[in-house]
Design goal:
346 residues; alpha+beta; five-stranded mixed β-sheet; binds dinuclear copper ion
């Protein structure tokens, strides 16, 4: 009686636990939260859909094989209750047929079929291409952020890639330091960013929206805080954004912002950051020309708000230890002025 109750409880716990695990399978549940964990099992484009389909096939096939093996194991153990070792040793070869048929033959067939499906999926996905006329975006990996260049359009941004909906876009991936890997689980497979070798990844999204890309190759202490936001827009929104990114920021209008500009341009900031139309032309850190129009700070780890930006400027090391942005020794007034200036960079 007691035993039965315990077993019941065990299965109840298992059920609850699996509900928690499985809830992680859909990345599209919390639509409005800023940080969302993307799931490859919730594909939002044809490339990711094929990968998800193949994954499901493998998961289900693997699950069925596991159940089969366990059932056979239980059958074998149960059916041989009470057998002595001596008796078993009298028939040393009795399981050979099963081992050859299932252990070798069946396994080989399964592996060959899966290999074939894998190659097929890769080939179909490789056929999705932006073509020579398509949009090309250079994505350069750094410890720990993403430099994003729209070379043909003549501007640069960071940690954010915008693309038009439904159109295949080519990302040219390369790294300036260690190896990184880009994975946008809802839109694509993973591809490494290697030094001195450009790898091309095609992105295509069925629906407009925001998608998270992650660095998928351990690249140092802040590897986990190296996210890339993919913003998929309608063609018109995208065109507006392109136009806005190509403009040189106007001279700040308010007194405070002007003062902030002077402080910024007179400080060490200019050796690492660029702002079009000014003497700030460093390229160690992200280009700030249109910082105000970006959704995130610190490579996808903070929402781009005034408060977060202030915290980042004053002590980025507290937020993301080891990154290259040094703490800034600023008075309250100076900080307010710099914030006012940076917020004009829309
Ligand atoms: Cu970059 Cu991990």
């Amino acid at each position: 009686m007691f035993r039965k109750k315990q077993t019941g409880r065990f299965f109840l716990l298992l059920l609850i636990a699996s509900a928690i695990w499985l809830s992680g399978c859909s990345g599209r549940v919390v639509e409005n939260s800023f940080i969302r964990t993307p799931s490859m099992l919730a594909p939002q484009g044809p490339v990711a859909a094929r990968i998800a389909g193949l994954s499901w096939f493998m998961i289900i096939l693997g699950g069925l094989i596991f159940l089969g093996v366990m059932a056979y194991f239980i059958y074998a153990a149960w059916g041989h209750r009470g057998y002595s070792l001596e008796e078993e040793l009298k028939h040393p070869n009795q399981g050979n047929g099963i081992v050859l048929t299932w252990g070798v033959g069946f396994t080989a067939v399964v592996l060959v079929v899966l290999f074939g499906l894998n190659i097929g999926t890769m080939r179909s996905n490789n056929q999705v291409s932006a073509g020579p006329q398509g949009l090309v975006i250079d994505v350069i990996g750094h410890q720990w952020w993403w430099e994003v260049q729209y070379q043909e359009q003549g501007f640069e941004t960071a940690n954010e890639v915008r693309i038009p909906v439904g159109q295949p876009v080519t990302l040219r991936l390369v790294t300036k330091d260690v190896i990184h890997s880009l994975w946008v689980p809802e839109l694509s497979g993973k591809l490494d960013l290697l030094p001195n070798q450009v790898n091309e990844l095609t992105l295509v999204a069925d629906k407009a929206g925001e998608y998270w890309g992650e660095c998928a190759e351990f690249c140092g202490t802040q590897h986990a805080k190296m996210q890339l936001m993919i913003i998929v827009q309608t063609e018109r929104e995208f065109a507006t954004w392109l136009e806005q990114q190509q403009t040189v920021p106007a001279r700040p209008e308010t007194e405070l912002a002007l003062e902030g500009q002077q402080i910024f341009l007179g400080s060490a900031c200019v050796y690492c950051h660029s702002i079009a139309g000014t003497n700030a032309s460093g390229d160690l850190g992200p280009d700030l020309t249109h910082l105000g129009s970006r959704r995130t700070l610190g490579a996808g780890i903070l929402e781009n708000t005034t408060g977060n930006l202030a915290g980042w400027i004053v002590d980025a090391q507290a937020i993301k230890p080891g990154n290259k942005m040094p703490p800034m020794d600023l008075s309250g007034e100076e900080l307010q002025a710099i914030l006012a200036y940076l917020e004009t960079l829309e």
